[in-house]
Specification:
Blueprint: E1 6-17, E2 20-31, E3 35-38, H1 46-53, E4 61-66, E5 69-73, E6 86-88, H2 100-109, E7 113-114, H3 118-123, H4 139-151, E8 162-166, H5 174-189, E9 193-197, E10 209-212, E11 215-218, E12 235-236, H6 241-253, H7 255-274, H8 285-300, H9 304-309, H10 314-321, H11 329-346, H12 353-376, H13 396-408
């Protein structure tokens, strides 16, 4: 293996938090087989270096490269990494409504392969919680899940990967930290590049370098003799982790029905209570607007999964990998069709399947636009303080144009 290959490069990177530059013209180049420990005091920028390396933070200057390919630069250009990497965020990056095995499998599936995780769960005393929701775990157990999701991609495939681990041992007991040190040794032997932020002195034993004052200081890691390892033979996994997670979360939480559905059904109830069905002329614009109003209202709620993803910064975990973010479009489409059909029946009209289809598309497309509003501010320090939903009234105009087009086309 070519140990001189630069897997992770940060060139002249400046990152601003508020009015202060946390990183100023920062440079870092990590090669295959290096483990770099960030152990400076709080506020020194350890998490900023990790998140900038993952391409999560906007850059004032400079660029970030993985395996020599651009990931992010100061002009805003952002590209998907050619090779999946491991990531453990300081805030875990786990969705509470997912099961333990599901989050770990997602991390592995982003590499297009899986390994047996049963032995790993036993190793970190999580096997009995395998099917439990992450929300039901203790803080230390949740940290183990986040740590495994960031570490295990390094055991998949023959090519070295970048592993970015921010405080992976936070809340872990001493035996678990000792096992983690052993596994970091093994990951380094496989040629992976590891960028590790931690206050624990245990990790100095496996670090090849320590970052001090923005300079890499070479160390002498402890000798490590490979022990008998669990079976690491990968299996190819087909299918999309994003699609599977989207379906699972919607089925388990019924979030789309509970949030978008309530708005749609409330709108339908108000229409039925205030509008006399006999007074509605199916040839008028009024009819088209009435039949689609509940579907439109449901879409204005936005994508309910985004709220789930803000938990423990799971949204940032998905965004860093740049392979998609879980969504509710399919469920919104079905909900919109159902609401449009019920509205027509409520006004004693025969069901128009074309109009019903338009209702489904209306809900899904409106949901996608509002979701875009929400994601546009997700990189801000306080995204919820910027109330982008105030822009949703502008969607009334395209809704009105759609209604006029339906009327002019004699679809009713």
């Amino acid at each position: 293996m070519d140990m001189s290959e630069a897997l992770l490069t940060l060139s002249d990177v400046t990152v601003r938090r508020g009015s202060s530059d946390v990183l100023k013209n920062f440079n870092l180049s990590l090669k295959s087989g290096q483990t770099v420990l960030l152990n400076e005091k709080n506020g020194a920028g350890k998490s900023t270096i990790i998140e900038a390396s993952a391409g999560l933070l906007p850059l004032e200057t400079g660029e970030v490269r993985h395996h020599g390919a651009l990931v992010l630069d100061s002009s805003g250009r952002s590209k998907r990494p050619e090779m999946a990497f491991g990531l453990t965020l300081q805030s875990d990056g786990c969705i509470g409504s997912q099961r333990v095995e599901e989050h770990i499998f997602n991390a592995l599936d982003l590499t297009s392969s899986r390994i047996d995780i049963e032995s790993w769960l036993k190793r970190y005393n999580l096997a009995h919680r395998k099917h439990d929701l992450i929300a039901h775990l203790s803080g230390g157990q949740r940290r183990k899940v986040a740590m495994l999701a960031g570490m295990l991609p390094g055991f998949v495939g023959d090519k070295p990967r970048i592993l970015l681990l921010d405080e992976p041992a936070s809340g872990l007991d001493q035996p678990s930290r000792e096992r983690l040190v052993e596994d970091l040794h093994a990951l380094r032997e496989r040629g992976n590049t590891i960028l590790l932020a931690s206050h624990h002195s245990d990790f100095a034993a496996c670090a090849t370098h320590i970052l001090e004052n923005n300079e890499l200081i070479a160390t002498n890691p402890d000798e490590y003799t490979s022990k008998k390892r669990i079976d690491l033979k990968p299996t190819v996994k087909s299918g999309s982790a994003v699609f599977r997670t989207s379906m699972t979360l919607n089925r388990r939480t019924l979030a789309t029905l509970a949030n978008n559905g309530i708005a749609g059904f409330l709108t339908l109830g108000i229409l039925l209570a205030l509008v006399d069905p006999k007074a509605v002329d199916s040839t008028l614009v009024q009819a088209s607007g009435l039949y689609l109003s509940s579907a439109f209202a449901a879409g204005l709620v936005g994508d309910s999964i985004i709220a789930m993803l803000h938990e423990h910064r799971a949204l940032d975990w998905w965004k860093a990998h740049r392979k998609g973010i879980p969504y509710s479009y399919l469920h919104g489409f079905v909900l919109g069709m159902g609401l449009t059909m019920l509205t027509q029946l409520g006004f004693d009209e025969s069901v128009s399947w074309l109009l019903t289809l338009i209702g489904g598309l209306l809900t899904a497309s409106t949901m996608a636009i509002v979701r875009w509003f929400d994601l546009a501010t997700s990189r801000l320090a306080r995204p919820k303080a910027v109330y982008t939903r105030i822009l949703t009234p502008i969607l009334v105009l395209p809704f009105a144009l759609l209604v006029q087009w339906i009327t002019d086309s004699n679809l009713l």
